[in-house]
Amino acid sequence: MVLAFALAAAALFGGADFLGGMASRRAQAASVLVISAPAGAVLVLAAALLAGAPFQTAGLGWALAAGAAGGAGLIIFYGGLAAGPMSVVAPVSALVSTVLPVGAALAMGERASPAVYAGAALCLLAIVLVSMQAQPPGPAPGPARRRVAVRGLGYGVASGLAFGIFFLFIRNAGTSGVLWPVCVARVGGSLIILGAAAWLGTRPVGPGAGRWVLPAAVAAGVLDASANVCYVLAARAGLFGMAVVITSLYPGITVLLARVVLGERMKAAQRIGLVLAAAGVAMVTF
Questions:
Q1: Nearest by Cα to 125 from 162, 160, 151, 98
Q2: How far, in Å, are 17, 249, 260 from residue 256 at the CA level?
Q3: What is the pLDDT of residues 180-205, one digit of tens each?
Q4: 0.85 cut: is pTM over it?
Q5: Comparing C-alpha atoms, which of 8, 10, 3 is closest to residue 131?
Q6: Measured between alpha carbons, how far is 191 from 201 in angstroms, rounded to an integer?
Q7: String of b and e for 236-271 (b: at least 16 CB within 10 Å)?
């Protein structure tokens, strides 16, 4: 079950990033985030109330900390995409956000077969490759370009650490339940994002950006929240490290959707990454 839930989480995260990215082409990413984050919180709150899930305070602290880390990670990540080269920020963030919780899982004593370790290593490489994006025009080679690259590396490491902490903390919160911990984390993350937006004077995206942009932002939040639920279920169902690695393959879903829906061309590195991802999942399964 851990594989099924983790793959579902990866598919939902990838779909959320695709819709969020589409909306961000017509409006500022921060304006889209102000809509998508609370939308996901409302969805999980409604699901928890309708399911009649008992509210437990045991994992409340972990959930709030996870939400704060996730919200901060999104702010840093989008700031990095605006300030540094995407070809550096995205893969570094994806790698760090995976390695940190996997390292924690190993430190906690999780062990698996050599085939699983080999498959996980392939997945880690795949995560970096599929996250690579084309380098937009920038400064000419020299000190200026190196400074931009170093800045992008910093943003990537910082956002990756925040996302990795989110994966770790929401897993800890999920030991006391599923829906309520995710709900509390989403509310905490939304408050961080809304607070930053208010401080920076960012306004939420409106109908003026295009009639489909606002629904896309809401749908991105719904898919992202649903992915959180699937990830917690995966972490509860089996090895935490495996759940993180498989879930972190979500950039591959985003790339595939961009190819199928928008007709975007994939880089050779991204194609190789998708093949390695499939091979890694197969090795983890068998």
A1: 98
A2: 12, 12, 6
A3: 889 999 999 999 999 988 898 888 87
A4: yes
A5: 10
A6: 15
A7: bbbbbbbbbbbbbbbbbbbbbbbeeeeeeeeeebbe
